[in-house]
Amino acid sequence: MKKWVMMILLYCGVLAGCSEKTYEPREIVSETDVCKICNMSIVHNAYAGQIALKNGDYEIFDDIGCLMEYIASNGDEEIGAAYIKDATKNEWIDVFRAVYVYNKEYWTPMNYGVVAFDTKQAAQEWMTQEGEGKVLQYKDLHNFNWGIHE
What is the 3-state secondary structure of the chain? Predict the structure, then answer.
């Protein structure tokens, strides 16, 4: 009997070790969180981003441009998940699946002018209300000119 119990426990341990780790966004604490790149406080949560690292740590950003600078400098091998706030819903969405719109007239904390949405339709509706912009996908952000747009 002990042999069977040991085998079942061993089997459960192997299964638990092989399961895929899941990541969840954490809440931003404006009083203490600062952007990993520019060291500014996260005052405007509606534009915040975060990366959940595979080691369990989180890196926080005040703007999608700062998040992309972190990825460009550090690579994406240690990233478990990355999130950005949807510009209309103020909800966390997957950075890699989001739809982005750029317009130099859109205000963002670092004046990059890029905002994120969960769908292309939401991005189109934003442009109808706020002014036309250029629709971008995550892959486009790697080659984007992240300087301040005046």
Answer: CHHHHHHHHHHHHHHHHHCCCCCCCCCCCCCCCECCCCCCECCCHHHCEEEEECCCCEEEECCHHHHHHHHHHHCCCCEEEEEEECCCCCCEEECCCCEEEECCCCCCCCCCCEEEECCHHHHHHHHHHHCCCEEECHHHHCCCCCCCCC
pLDDT, tens only, 66-98: 999 999 999 999 999 999 999 999 899 999 999
Instruction: Report pTM.
Output: 0.84
